[in-house]
Input
Amino acid sequence: MNHLPSQLLQLLLLAAALLRPASAKCHIAKRGLSKDLLLIGTVLTSDGALLDSTILIQSGRIAHVGDICGLGTRGGDASVLNCTGSVVSPGFINTHEHISFATVSPFPDIGERVGHRHDWRLGTRNYTMRAVAVNGSDAAATAWGELRHLFSGTTSIIGGGMVPGLARNLDFRDGVEEGLDERVVIYDTFPLGDGLGMMRNGDCDYGPNPIDRDTAIGYHRYIGHIGEGIDVEAANEFTCLSNVTFDTTPALAGGGLSTDIIAPNVALVHALGLTPQDFDVVAARGAKIVWSPRSNMYLYGKTLNVSYLLEAGITVALGTDWLPSGSATMGREAACAASAANESFGAELPPKLLWEMATANAAVVAGFEDQLGSLEVGKLADIVVFEGGSRERGAADPFEQAIFAPQEKIELVLRGGKILLANSEVEDLVSGTCEPVAFGSSDKIACVADELGSSFKELEASLRGVYPVVLPELPPDEPTCNAAIWSL
Ligand SMILES: [Zn+2]
Output
C-alpha cells in the first residue's frame, strides 16, 4: 500500500494555501492508486464554513469531514483534488419540479396574473389558457431537465418524472440510485382530484378520488400541490385537507368529504392561498412547505411571507416548479427567493438560510436527511464544488458563492462519489465516457453518456432548438420575479 503520510498531506495543503491563485480552481494535487478521493476546500456545514478543510470519499460515501489531522493514515492512497479557496457543498435537492416539461420554454409574459392555477392551466374565469407543448419524447425531455439541474449543482429532484442515472429522483424507487430504494416520496399534483378545474368555496366537492388521511399518513413522505392561488378557492383547498368537520356530506360522484392530512410526513407545495392562521396549523402539526417563489410571482404576482413561516418553526425547502413559469436552476430560485422576500416583505434572507432551503431542509422534506443534504460521515457523496471567485479568502460569504453560483462557476458535481461534471483541469480523474462541453468561457467535461445512453451532444442535437441546459449566465427569457408587473 502506498500510504501517503498525513504530514505530507498537510504539507501539500499548506503549499496549496500559499500558492493559491487569485481565482481558485480545483486541480489534481496527487493521483492515487485507489478510487478514494480527497477534496480540499472550504466546506459548508450547518455550523458554518470550514476553511481549508478536507472531505474523504470512499465507496461513494463520505468517510471524513474536517481537519486533515483527523484523517490519520486513511486516504493515503486517495487521489487528492485541491480546491483550496473553492466552496464544497452538498448537492442541491430540488423539492419541486415537473421535470418532463423541461423542453417547454418559459411562457411569454402577457402581463396577466391570475387568482388560481386553473385560470392559466385551463383558461377558467376568462383568463388566458397557457399552452404547454412538450418537444421531444417524454424520456428525452426528462433527461434534458435532469441535465439542466445537474449542470447547476442539483443532484436530487422530486419532479414527477425520471430517467435512470443522472440526478436522483426521490419520487421513484428505480430513480433514487445507489440502493436507496426502500422509500420514496409520493408526489401529487392534484391531491383533491381537481385536475379538470374544480374550484370550490364552502364545500369540498372536488374530484371523486381525493387524498384521504389514512393514505397520506401511510406514506413515507407525501408532497402535494395545495392552495396554489391567491383567492378564496385556493384557501378552501387547505380547509378541505386540514379540517375533518368542514364538509361531512359526500358528493354524489364520490369524494366530497373534508379530511385532515396535515402531519409531519406531509409537505405542501405552493400553499399560496393559506392564511397566517392556516400556517399556524401547518407549524403545530409539523408539516413542511415547498416554496417556489418565481413561479408564484410570475403566475400570481405574490409569494409566501416566508419569514412568518420560519418564525413559526416551519421547515421550508426550495423548488423550481417548472421551466414555463419557474426557475431554470436552484441558484436562480434562491435569487428570486431573496429578492421577492425583500421586495414584498422587507425581509433579508441570508445566503446560508437559502442554502439550507436547498440542502438540509430539502432533505428533511424529502425524508432522506439520514443520507443526503449535508456533508457528514456516512452520507452519500453528493457533492458540488463552486469556484471561490477572486476575492480574498474570508472576504466573501462562501454560502453566497454556493447558492447563487451560475453554472460557469461550478467546478465539480459528484453523485455518490461519481464525477458527472468537472472542470477540464480535473480530466485525469474522471472515468467512463466523458465529453467536453463549453460553459461560456469555462471548459468542462460531462461524464453522463454511460447513464444517458447517448452522448450529451447527441441528445442536444436530437432536441435542437429547445431551451438550453448549458446556462453559463442568466437563463434566457427567465420569468420575472418582480411583483411590479402586477399593476399592468
Ligand atoms: Zn407544480
Notes: Residues 93-363+478-487 form a domain with the TIM Barrel fold (CATH 3.20.20.140). Residues 96, 98, 225, 269, 321 surround zinc ion (CB under 6 Å). The chain has a mean pLDDT of 93. The first strand starts at residue 27 and ends at 30.
